[in-house]
Amino acid sequence: MFKKPFLPWVCTMVCLIIVYSFYYPRTDRRDTKNTPTVKLTPVKRFVFKSFVDCNMSEVWVGTRFTIFPGKYGEDPVWGPSNNLKYASGKTVDEVISTPESGFTEPKLPPNVEPGKPGLHGAIWFESIYQDAGDRSGKTLYALYHNENYPATLPYDAKTGKGYKNHKWPEGLRGAETASAVCRIGIMRSADDGKSWVNRGIFIEDEQPRMILKPNNTAINFAGGTGDPSAIANGNYLYLFYGEYGYPGAFDEKNYNPKTEWQGQCISIARILISDLNHPEGKAKRWDGKGFNAPYNGVGKPVASLQIPQAEGGGPTSSPTAKYYWGPSVSWNVYLKCWVMTMAKAEGPSWKGSSVYVSFNKNRDLGIGNNSQEWGKPQLLANKPGHTLWYPSLQPLSSEANSVNKLSSVRSSRFARLFYKDNDNDKNDYVSEYLMEFVR
Question: What residue intervals traverse the membrane (predicted)?
Fold first, then answer.
């Protein structure tokens, strides 16, 4: 038996442990209390003057704010496009208010013929990373959303790349058109966005994971990875993207919609920043335990961002399923946490009238499960009868400058909420609300 003096000593040690735990919490554990909230104030409608069909890509180079909206390349469904352009100015408002005629076409690599190595299909710049090692700020990496079809990227049995035109799902312009497959690549510019060189594919899903007829009836994608947003954290570039493929080999006879749903939603991959010049095969996807799945393998989506089946959640190949998509991620310097905006699909072809926000209070996304610890999405705006796409946070012109570098990937206490509003004949990229973050 212990002597009596032992009991006070034990009590003292227990008290010290409790006090230490209170004042020195573990830094790799997310604070689940005091989840940030948002206040929205209606403001005068502010319309982006040029074409937008993607997440907004922008960067400060020197004292100038530059933005890269639009689409470029071949598209057998909608036709070729040269709308991927850029505009720059000394203030955010100046750039957003630039008329389409004031945008400039950058020099981009041409499309190559099917079967040849190079750029296939159409691209959209959806996120820009500025090389921290270049003091001039002119070295940029664009994360691009790339769409292809069996016609532009036919299947090559030797490489396993490309798509087979067999039981291919219907496209956006009717039964005579095909669904696209999305994947994500990287381009590099050494002259602040005036010209670009293709560096290759970041991540992709290949033919075995395509979801085909008769199971795919959503009239959107046959599968793939797309609609990305990228942020730098530590030595890595983290990629947030929509996962649209089957989580394994698709088999019409053994197809299971629940299995498809379990492997889809918003997912995360990462790549070493030092690998951006030669990215192919270097990225890793989250597999449930860490960033271990290969760039073309099967990973696991962020569980907290999946809509439960009991609440209408389902696979992206269903025209009635609900799911979040189109993430846009920023570091909020006021909240000191990560902020993600996203759209919500509730019908065929990504139709949905609402946009949402989620928070992650872990500064270091590389520790444990930190990258996966996103809160339940909070409703930001709902416009019944409209389709809202690509929500993003844009800084106030009065607060954003080349010193604090506020942009779509670096936000503060106040921001403008932008989204694409498809309302019959109108298809504007617009801000109708001022956002205030509350901690």
Answer: 6-24
CA distance 396 to 123: 28
Q: Tokens in use for 425?
A: 């004949």
How far is Cα 315 from Cα 246, in angstroms, rounded to an integer? 9
19 part of a folded domain: no
Give pLDDT tens digits for 396-411.
Answer: 999 999 999 999 999 9
> Distance of alpha carbon 203 from its chain centroid, rounded?
13
Q: Which residues contact 396 (CB under 8 A, 6 or more apart)?
A: 92, 406, 414, 415, 416
pTM: 0.92
Cβ neighbour number for residue 99 with a 10 Å cutoff: 9
Other Cβ atoms less than 10 A from the Cβ of 79: the count is 8
CA separation, residue 309 to residues 152, 260, 261, 313, 323 (Å):
35, 12, 8, 4, 10
Long-range contacts of 336-341 (CB under 8 A, 24+ apart): 336/361, 336/363, 337/36, 337/361, 337/362, 337/363, 338/231, 338/362, 338/365, 339/36, 339/393, 339/411, 339/437, 340/229, 340/240, 340/266, 340/374, 341/380, 341/391, 341/392, 341/393, 341/417
Residue 6 lies in a domain: no
* C-alpha atoms less than 13 angstroms from C-alpha of 133 in its C-beta half-sphere: 6
- Could you tell me the CATH number of the domain that includes residue 170? 2.115.10.20
Q: Express each pLDDT in 355-386 by its tens digit.
A: 999 999 999 999 999 999 999 999 999 999 99
Domain count, the chain: 1
Q: Residue 63: what residue type?
A: T
> Which residue is listed with tokens 């989620």?
358
Q: Which two tokens stand for residue 26?
A: 């573990």
* DSSP strand pairing (323-332 vs 291-294): unpaired
Asked whether 184 and 202 are in contact (CB, 8 A), the reply is yes
Q: Is residue 231 in a domain?
A: yes
Per this entry, what is the length of the chain? 439
One-letter amino acid of 26: R
What φ, ψ does residue 38 adopt, rounded to 5°? Answer: -130, 135
pLDDT of 7 strictly over 80? no
Where in the sequence is the domain holding 221, given as residue range(s)?
33-438
Residue 2 maps to a domain: no
| Beta-carbon count within 10 A of 265 CB | 24
